[in-house]
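Render this sequence as a predicted structure.
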Amino acid sequence: MPTFSLTGINVGTFNLGEADRIVTFFSRERGLHRAVAKGARRPGTKLAGKSEALNINRMLLAKGKNLDIITQCETIESFQRLRQDLERLAFSLYLAELTQIFGQDLTEDSQEYFDKLSLFLGLLAESDKNPGLLALEFEFVLLDMIGINPELDYCVGCRAPLTDRSLKAFNYELGGLVCETCFLRLRKLQNDSDNNRASVYVTPLVWKYLILARGASKLEVGEALKQAQESHSLKPDQSVQANQPIIAARRLMQGYLEYKAGKKFRSLEMLPDLL
């Protein structure tokens, strides 16, 4: 039986039969991939912990008829600190869920995406940076790589440069921000229910966080690591107030990704106050 090796980040699992587990992982070499971890649900088996979500493994796989089979597995990184913080774990699982949904579009850029996903998981685990802001930055990384980055600088309706005064809303269908004039024009073209579904009001402060996150997502890996401990950490007495525009900005981008995916994401449901 032919074998081959992959290095991958586990992004999802589901049970197979009485003791096996199917692992979905994003590999550096081939992108999104699925394989069977035989006996992984048996107590004490070597593959039990290694097949959990968010582990980075180096694997030897045997070619199977329908699914490949993991024959050897070495864990490179398990991000143990993530598992001690419910908020950071939830956001990490959100990154994994995004990868499962959009990963098929990233096969040609698998090495670049693998490096960025592992970087952001490491930042979520080790840095003091606000996890919601990290998730927002990662959303822009993903949007850029799959080619649906939203327009934040110009109105997608009339192409006029946006300002604090002209800014009105984000339109999911058009893929970017609209000015007040175009927003009112769109309302006349759409009935109220369609408009409510497709547009979200945006304040100037939320707009600035979107631009900040978009810029940070374009940093090189080394520069991102260097800045991980810097500008966006929140002091305890400022966290609730400072978090509000971050939450609003991240909700907006999650809504845009859900609109593109045609489905709701589930990873953050355990943290309703942090959505």
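Summary. Residues 220-240 have pLDDT under 50 and may be disordered. Residues 13 and 113 are 20 Å apart (CA to CA).
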